[in-house]
Each structure stands twice: as C-alpha cells, then as structure tokens.
Amino acid sequence: MRIILAQPRGFCAGVNMAIQCVEEALKIVGQPLYVYHEIVHNRHVVDQFTKQGVIFVNTIDEVPAKQTVIFSAHGVSPTIRNAAKARGCTMIDATCPLVTKVHMEAIRYARQGYKILLIGHAGHDEVVGTVGEAPGAITIVESPEDVANLPFGDSDKIAYITQTTLSMDDAERIIHAIRQRYPHVKVPPSEDVCYATTNRQQAVRELGEDAELVLVVGSKNSSNSLRLTEIAESSGTRAYLVDDRSEIDHRWFDGVQTVLLTAGASAPEHLVQEIVDDLLDRYGGSAGEAHVVDEHMHFELPLSLRVLRDGQPIRTRAGAGAGA
Ligand code: SF4
Fold first, then answer.
1. pLDDT tens column, 62-101
2. 154 CA distance to ligand 1 centroid (A)?
3. Residue 311: what pLDDT?
C-alpha cells in the first residue's frame, strides 16, 4: 500500500493556542478548571483534558462562582462573557483570533446599520457566538436556496460574513447567489474562511486525485474535518472520517493501492501516526509526505492568560467584541 500524507494537515495555529491555554491554565490555576464548550472539536483532546481534571460545561450556570473558565477556540457571545463576569469568574478567552476577526466584522457592520448575512451552519458553536455579537442584525444563510428566501430589498444595506471552517466551494456558491440577488452587497475586506481550512481543503483536492481512498482523522462534530471528507467525495473518491484507528473498517481497503491520509485542524498528529503504523503493519508498502502549502502561522497566548501567569490582576472584560 502507498500512503500519501497530506501537508498541511492536523493542528492549526488557533487549535495549538487553545490547547496551550488549557495546559498553561492547569499549571497556573490547577483544579478545578472549567472550559465552556469543547476547547476544540476533538474527542481525544477533550478526553485527555478531562482525565487531567478539566471540567467541560455547556452552560455558565455549571461554573461555580469565582472559578476560572476558559472560552473555547470557537468563541462565545457577549451574553456568555457577561454571565461569567456576573459570577465573578476569572475568564480566559481562547477564541481563535481569526474567529475574533469575524466577530469584529459583525459588530462593525451592525453599528453601520447593515443587515448581516452569516454564511455558516446554524447551531455550530462558532456561529452561535458570532450571532450573539449582533443578534438583531444577523441572518444565518446555509445554502443558495436560503438566499432566495431572504426578506431584504434593494434599499437595505447588506453585508456578508462567513464561518471560518466552511467548504470554500460551498461558500463561493452561496456568495455568488448573494451577489446575484444583492449586487450592492458589502464584501468583507478579507476572506473569512481561514487559512488552515483553505489549505487543508486545497491539499485534499490536489492529492485526492492520486488516491483511491481518503481517510480523514477528526471528530464527527469537527466542521473542517467533515468538509475535508465531503471534498474528497465530491471528486468521486471514497472518503471516511475516523476519530482514530479503532474506527477503521479494513474491508474499505479491498483492492486499494493508494490511500490519502489527512487530519482536520483539531486532530492530534499521534492519531495519524498510529493509523500509518497500523496500515503499514497490515499491508506493507510505504508512507510519504506530500507538501501542497507551507504554513507558518502562530498565535500568541491570550493576554488574560499571560497576565494570570505573570501574577498581575486580570481586568475582566464583558460586552461586545471577543478577544484572544
Ligand atoms: S480552523 Fe481556522 S479559525 Fe478555526 S481555530 Fe484553526 S485557524 Fe482558527
């Protein structure tokens, strides 16, 4: 068997930063340490931190007063920040700066009186957080069909923003429909679908052509991992999303000579390497990296954590605008 290892794959700068936030906070604060929502959408990462004593919660009510709470990489709405502040919690905001950028765009457009079309998946943590920045101004758009049903007219000021982890192709189809219907739409100054999502998708698109089967390592609730699977399938290649090697069904490999292996932005590399070892043990052959795009992005730890680490008082922040 020939295994092509897609580059880039796996952890992005935002996930690295968020995970480092929890690791550092565990050292500084110890237990109990609360994290609002999964820090990143990966079962292994969450399980590992749970074993280390981190308590993941889905509501701020679950965080006792005056405890430390970390907000996940997907960002939160001002309502959540205000609720944590009201409980006297110490807040560490591990929101990816690229999600924060979208929050800031939403706030700015809302202040300027725009109707904001948020291209994304309703219910996803990131989308919920972004909507919370300007709930009266944002309408979620999930498909070109949704655009046809929008109630806004030619006299409305319209702007669009997007979730960071969308399929580039899907986003472009929806943006095209928006521009057709609202030629005067305000276009964001820069792309919202993030560099990590874009690069991992490009790698699958380019390298998938050489493979008979694509394996994506990632969790089922990871938006960018799901998109990688869909992109491979859309070009006619069989693709499976697996959390780890235990989810592989070896009947998938009947007659398969070449496998493309990639990982979503929240999937740890050791899970990829375990799959490589397993496949080579069973089928023999070789594994090699295939570079499509180089990445050099790095995000600093959030100020709230650095201040906590350096022993100075934290100024808690609430209201509009997430910071990372
Ligand atoms: S996938 Fe993109 S937006 Fe999400 S954490 Fe990574 S870099 Fe940030």
1. 999 999 999 999 999 999 999 999 999 999 999 999 999 9
2. 34
3. 75
Q: How far is the CA of 239 from the centre of ligand 1 (A)?
A: 22
Q: Ligand 1 centroid to 51 CA: how many Å?
A: 25
C-alpha–C-alpha distance, residues 8 and 171, integer Å: 21
Helix (H, G, I), strand (E, B) or coil at 25: helix
- The string of pLDDT tens digits covering residues 299-315 is 999 998 988 888 755 45
For 162-201, b/e burial (b = at least 16 CB within 10 A) is: bbbbbbbebbeebbebbeeebeebbeeeeebbbbbbbbbb
Which of 21, 99, 104, 191 maximizes ligand 1 atoms within 8 Å of its Cβ, making it the mutation to test the pocket?
Answer: 99
The residues carrying an active-site annotation are: 126
Q: Judge whether 2-11+195-291 and 98-181 match in fold.
A: yes
Q: Residues with beta carbon inside 6 Å of ligand 1?
A: 12-15, 73, 96, 98-99, 164-165, 194, 196-197, 224, 265
Fold of the CATH domain 2-11+195-291: Cobalt-precorrin-4 Transmethylase; domain 1 (3.40.1010)
The model's pLDDT over 211-265, given as tens digits with 9 standing for 90+, comes to: 999 999 999 999 999 999 999 999 899 999 999 999 999 999 999 999 999 999 9
